[in-house]
Cytochrome c oxidase subunit 2 (Paractinoplanes globisporus), 311 residues
Amino acid sequence: MGAKSSAARRRGAVRIAGLGLGGAGLLFLLSGCSLESFGSAFGNFGWPSSGVSLQAHKMYDLWIAAVIAALVVGIFVWGLIFWCIIRYRKRGDELPVQTRFNMPMEVLYTVTPILVVAVLFYYTAIVQTDVDKLSKNPDQIVQITAFKWQWEFDYRDGMGKDANTVASTIGSADVIPLLVLPTGEKIRFEETSKDVIHSFWVPEMLFKRDVFPGNVRNVFEVTLDKEGRYVGRCAELCGTYHAFMQFEMVVVSPEKFDQFLTAKKAGASTQEAMEAIGFTGKDAYAVTTEPLNTRRQANSWNQHDAVASGK
């Protein structure tokens, strides 16, 4: 009787521990407002940052919640493993009771993984749908045109190919292109390529989207909520100078963005428009990255000419 009650108490303790771990995981999953502070305390669990857009925050929360759920399951499983190692360690030559199967246990380790996968799939589908969602009337429309090995950003007055470009920024080997955008507004990007497949990627947006040539136009929207300057890159191997195909995303207040766009419409260059909203001197150019170093190519050609001429 004493042995049975002791075993029952141990089983009860295991159940309570499991409920406690599950409750802790559920608490973190439900308290989304604390996920960012919790994740930052542990280096974001490998995620770059919490992002600079509303869509990025939701992806960040999904990642942190999934990692916490995995840790909860892992700790519980590790606890059971070590408990079994200690509880059923060899104490003599007598074999313990041999059990062919345990129906409740088999149901548990079959149903539980299915539930875990179903919950993860459900929240992943919700976040993915929200990230890909397009509004009927975005506040700003920007056409992204990629080509070897630069970017062109066209501010448009409507959606689709028939819309007109009201202002444009194009990069060169000497000047990194600036993509100036406002906070708090729905921004629609329409992508196209002039040659091969490229990929539009700003790491702080926690999002990238391939840019295809031809009639395929990838479209997506973001709502930025943090001002700053962020490096953008091509994330698809596209040729010799792929590594130098960069741009800078400059996020400003809606008021400054309107001033910038007004200056561009009046015929100002991108740098002149940047100065109009307070970015003077070197700040009128990219500060997160540098343009392609063409001197290396020039030096190699000079050496080639010298060899060819016998000097």
Summary: The longest strand covers residues 140-147. Residues 140-292 form a domain with the Immunoglobulin-like fold (CATH 2.60.40.420). The chain has two domains: 2-89+101-132, 140-292. The chain has a mean pLDDT of 82.
